[in-house]
Design a protein that fits this description.
It holds the Pfam family BBE. By secondary structure, the protein is of the alpha+beta class. Strands 10, 11, 12, 13, 14, 15, 16 and 17 form an eight-stranded antiparallel sheet that branches. Strands 5-6-9-7-8 form a five-stranded antiparallel sheet. Strands 1-2-4-3 form a four-stranded mixed sheet.
């Protein structure tokens, strides 16, 4: 359990005095950045630039001890803390806070005998993918190889083989973390077990993770890629994919995206400024079987572009073709109980051909299989009853304007009532955090937050405030 030692706490929102900041700078040198410092903007810049946040201090962490020093300083002076590796999912304004940048802590090691990987706080998935591939192994990464391992996993990790192997969080073996009391802990199923449960699904609420150890799977190759259809075939393509998912083995994980990509450099020419349908497939089995399974998608409708083939796992990023450079977008989500004819028709009315939709991406991911089963080590990832995950990626609202009603709200009648935390990004999404968990899970997370971070030091995130009252025992 956390330490019970007491610390001085200044008034909420009070900036630390200059002499205190000078002391931190003296201790960590150029690793402490203020808004006036030349390296500040470059260190702050993340993948999703929607928030435009400006923390009072950035601590550039190069090793675990730097994280501990940063947490101790923030706690002592009442500063809220955020942690950023790649910045794919910003959710809170960091003004007045302390941001711990972990992007330089990028070590990765593979143990081929135990089929495990250890990734430091700032490691990205492409590093793990490349290292594991030397041993015929693969991690349970998501669509973007440049996403951070830690943030993705702490939010659950809905990956490209989720139907075969479940969520990435289901395969975590141990987590090294600095908690709000400045202690460096290793959480496992038998050590700080409550913390171990909460970290896997509870996002960044329980400390600054310094490293993860997680299991790998024996998948050296995939039958994967994408099928693109013109927007005028959107209704036919969506219904075809929906019906096709009904009889698939767990080795096949797929998704469908309605794309309205902007006419800007970097967007492939055939996809610019028009509606297209992108069906993505990842089959973790023999390519001949994969081709047989995909055949109905090729024969019922003629794709304008077909990239599905037998590929090494190192090419997994080519399946979704996520942009590599920085972006600016809102992201919202809704877990769907199922996707029947009525729900599909409603979605097409909202985002299909002729719809007044400005979302860059409206995506459906097929779940079920291992994603619907409880893991061997329980965690805080809910959604085991969802058949599909619906997510939208939307442009920023023009200055002075507000975003229209989210498409996910209009699809609520077919939802489970829950959202997916990793698919919430941008201003205002922090308010959606309770909807990412069922009531019992959220209540337990809030109680564990009270145990490990009673003053809510780690709150520049998808925040779960500590529950009032006594903290639970382990």
């Amino acid at each position: 359990m956390p330490s019970t030692r007491e610390h001085y706490r200044p008034p909420e929102g009070a900036a630390p005095p200059q002499e205190a900041v000078a002391g931190l700078v003296a201790r960590l040198g150029g690793q402490v950045l203020r808004p006036r410092d030349r390296a500040y903007d470059a260190e702050l810049a993340g993948y999703n630039r929607i928030s435009g946040h400006r923390p009072a201090l950035i601590v550039v962490a190069l090793r675990d001890e730097h994280i501990r020093v940063a947490v101790d300083f923030a706690r002592a002076w009442g500063m809220p803390v955020g942690v950023q590796a790649t910045g794919h999912g910003p959710a809170a304004d960091t003004a007045g806070g302390l941001l711990i940048s972990t992007r330089h802590m990028r070590s990765v090691s593979i143990d081929p005998v135990s089929r495990t990987a250890r990734a430091a706080a700032g490691a990205q998935w492409h590093q793990v993918i490349a290292s594991a591939a030397h041993h015929g192994l693969a991690p349970l990464n998501g669509s973007s190889p440049t996403a951070g391992v830690v943030g993705y996993t702490l939010g659950g990790g809905l990956g490209l083989m989720v139907r075969k192997y479940g969520y990435a969080a289901d395969h975590v073996r141990s987590i090294e973390v600095v908690t709000a009391d400045g202690e460096h802990r290793t959480a496992t199923p038998t050590q700080d077990a409550g913390l171990f449960w909460a970290l896997r699904g509870g996002k960044g609420n329980f400390g600054a993770v310094t490293a993860l150890e997680f299991g790998l799977v024996p998948v050296p190759r995939l039958y994967g890629g994408g099928l693109f259809y013109p927007g005028e075939l959107a209704a036919e393509a969506v219904h075809l994919w929906r019906e096709w998912t009904g009889e698939l083995p767990e080795e096949m994980t797929s998704s469908l995206a309605l794309l309205r990509l902007p006419d800007v450099p970097g967007t492939p020419e055939p996809l610019r400024a028009r509606l297209t349908v992108h069906i993505r497939v990842a089959y973790a089995g023999p390519p001949r079987e994969g081709a047989q399974l995909v055949a109905p998608l090729r024969t019922a409708l003629t794709p304008m572009l077909d990239t599905v083939a037998d590929i090494p796992y190192t090419a997994v990023g080519d399946i979704h073709m996520d942009p590599e450079g920085p972006q600016e977008y809102h992201q919202n989500s809704l877990m769907l109980a199922d996707l029947g004819h009525e729900a599909t028709q409603r979605l097409l009315a909202l985002a299909g051909s002729g719809a007044a939709c400005d979302d860059y991406v409206v995506e459906l991911r097929h779940l079920g299989g291992a994603a619907g089963r409880a893991p061997a080590q329980p965690n805080a990832v809910d959604h085991r009853d969802a058949g599909f995950a619906l997510t939208t990626i939307s442009p920023p609202a023009p200055p002075g304007a507000t975003r229209p009603e989210p498409l996910t709200d209009a699809m609520a009648p077919w939802g489970t009532g829950l959202k997916y935390a990793n698919f919430l990004a941008g201003p205002g999404t922090a308010d959606c955090v309770p909807a990412a968990y069922d009531s019992a899970t959220y209540a337990r997370l809030a109680q564990l937050k009270a145990a490990y971070d009673p003053h809510n030091v780690f709150r520049l995130n998808h925040n779960i405030p500590p529950a009032p009252g006594p903290a639970p025992s382990e």
